[in-house]
Amino acid sequence: MLLTISTTHTPATDLGYLLVKHPDRVQSFATTGGTAHVFYPEATAERCTAALLLDVDPVELARPSKGRKTPDSFSLGRYVNDRPYAASSLLTVALGKVFRSALKGASRDRADLVDTAIPLEIEVPALPCQGGADVVERLFAPLGWTVAATPVPLDPAFPEWGDSPYVRLRLTGTVRLADALNHLYVLLPVLDDAKHYWVSEDEVDKLLRAGDGWLGGHPERELIARRYLAGRRTLAQSALERLDATDEPLDDTPDAVERIEAAERAKPLVRLRKEAVLAALADTGASRVLDLGCGPGALLLELVADNRYTEIVGADVSSASLALAERRLRFDRMPDRQRARITLIQSALTYHDDRLKGFDAAVLMEVVEHVDEARLPALERAVFGHAAPRAVIVTTPNVEYNVRYESLHGHRHDDHRFEWTRAEFAAWVDRVCAAHGYTAELRPVGADDPEVGSPTQLALFRKAV
Ligand code: SAH
Question: Does ligand 1 come within 6 angstroms of the Cβ of 48?
């Protein structure tokens, strides 16, 4: 099982400093199921190649061991399998062990180079690849790699037998070495889709650590999480939720609450919006309500103060926001009867969540624009299809109004993935109604400018009966 990494960065032998392995030596390390060797087939100032060769001992691998899956329950399959030559999760384990400091982006002697994208060429001669060469492209190309994945024939002597499920992978790109190693660390086992060990919760941490800075924005993040976590749905969901949540700056300093409240007071629109939402909510006659994407709890404070709301659930993907909401609501000082009316839960609105089913009404106040447009249909299915409250109130900025904010360039908030015109919002509302059996009413919030409309737009959906 072989992996080579080459660079033409000059002097190319600096690769040895980055990998913390000297180009003049062959080094060997004991690892799961065999021995990993690191050596340099070429090491000149112009071009340097490091090779990681994993010599798998199938007999050792077949031996029962704690936490390890034997390759096959069929007895011969335990000895005769692709483990010795195909790049799999065993290679990843070796990579993680042998290049540990390079994966972390640490190099004592070349600290600057660690942060520099350098020309790299990576080859894996036999890469098992579930789903075909096309998947390789979808996984590596968005990360800036030029991908060549050539199917390996089953037997070159018998071309009529066709191709094996393996590809010869060649990646070229100008990438930081640490990033490149982390891409491989995550994506090789994703391509193999067959881990040699049982996957548990700490594997989520490993994935998020290795995926730091690139997995969150990867278009195939779901496929990656699902396969990396060996198809364990709840783990994959937890990884994706945490990826979403890390977009947000964590502010849990002692004065965070004061700062939030001061910022809210400074914006009259915040008050107008809350009032419009509360008025719409009152119109629905709801008593059991959801505040979806509740953030630090501005609306929850109003809801608990109003006794018509007998059950209030605040949900957000961000645990930092939920912690702030809890502080603002002063859970510690709330009488038991009050306390029993309100629950805070961590939930990602793009996933079905049974805890959100069967409510009278749900509010999504300034939330949809924080969700990637590509993920919006998933939110629609989860909220309008699965949770399916009798009424839903959605507010979002009206982008047409942005011209009235003189100092504003771009979106109103850094984390907004989009902002809609009135026509775009109306079209979305219509589509959701048609798909999920709701009727809706649009209401402007804030001064209704004759030219560009109101700063905020609100839709009140009611389940059609
Ligand atoms: N509704 C609050 C907060 C709006 S900010 C208010 O108006 O004050 C948007 C909130 O949506 C953030 O707290 C963010 O964590 C949350 N959010 C964004 N994407 C989400 C998702 N996919 N699932 C759950 N919450 C999400």
Answer: no
pLDDT digits (tens, 9 = 90+) for 103-127: 988 888 888 888 888 999 999 988 8
Q: What pLDDT does residue 67 have?
A: 55
Tens-digit pLDDT profile for residues 452-465: 999 999 999 999 98
What are the boundaries of each domain within the chain?
Answer: 2-198, 269-463
For a ligand 1 pocket test, name from 277, 367, 457 the mutation site with the most ligand atoms within 8 angstroms of its C-beta.
Answer: 367
Assigned token pair, 306: 């109003």
Closest-CA residue to 81 (of 52, 53, 51, 57): 57
State whether CATH 3.40.50.150 applies to domain 269-463.
Answer: yes
Q: How far apart are CA 268 and CA 17, in angstroms?
A: 57
Percent of the chain with pLDDT over 70: 90
> Ligand 1: does its nearest atom lie under 6 Å from the Cβ of 244?
yes
Contacts of 255 by beta carbon, 8 Å cutoff, 6+ apart:
none
CA of 292 to the centre of ligand 1 (A): 7
Q: Report CA(100)–ligand 1 centroid distance (Å).
A: 36
CATH class, 2-198 region = alpha beta
- Is the CB of 298 inside a 6 Å radius of any atom of ligand 1? yes
Q: How far is the CA of 321 from the centre of ligand 1 (A)?
A: 9
Residue 151 in contact with residue 166, Cβ under 8 Å? yes
Classify residue 26 as left (phi > 0), alpha (psi -120 to 50) or beta: beta
